[in-house]
Amino acid sequence: QVQLVESGGGLVQAGGSLRLSCAASGSFSSIDTMGWYRQAPGKQRELVADITSGGSTNYVDSVKGRFTISRDNAKNTVYLQMNSLKPEDTAVYYCNARVGIRLGYLGVWGQGTLVTVSS
Fold first, then answer.
1. Count of H helices and E strands in the chain?
2. Sign of the torsion formed by the C-alpha atoms of 84, 4, 29 and 103
3. Which terminus of the chain, N or C, has fewer Cβ atoms within 10 Å?
C-alpha cells in the first residue's frame, strides 16, 4: 500500500506565501512524476505543477513565476512553494504521484490540504 501525506496548507493574506509538502510512504520500487493539483469550489480539479524524477517541471500558466515545485528523491517528498498568493489560488490542493510497483505503475492521490487566500 502506498500513501501520500500532505501538509502546509492554511489561511494566508493575499501577497503572502505558503509551502506545501507531500511525502510518499509504503511499498514501491520507484516514484516517477509527482505533482500538485487543486480544486476550487464548483470547479474541476486542475494540474498546478508537476516534476519528473529527473527534475523537469511543468506549470499551469496562472502560477508561472509565483509557484515553484521541487522534490527530494531521497525523502520521497515533493514540495510546492507558493509566493505572491492571490484569492483565486484558494482551493484544496492534492498531491499526486506515479509510483512503481511490482505489476507496473500506480497513480496515488493524497487526502488534500486546504489553502485559503484572503483579500
1. 0, 11
2. negative
3. N
Handedness of CA 28, 34, 39, 40 (dihedral sign): positive
For the chain, state the CA radius of gyration: 14
Instruction: Judge contact between 5 and 72, C-beta under 8 A.
Output: no
The values of phi and psi at residue 55, to 5°, are 100, 5
Per-residue pLDDT of the chain (119 residues; tens, 9 = 90+): 899 999 999 999 999 999 999 999 999 999 999 999 999 999 999 999 999 999 999 999 999 999 999 999 999 999 999 999 999 999 999 999 999 998 899 999 999 999 999 99
What are the cell numbers at 34?
A: 509527482
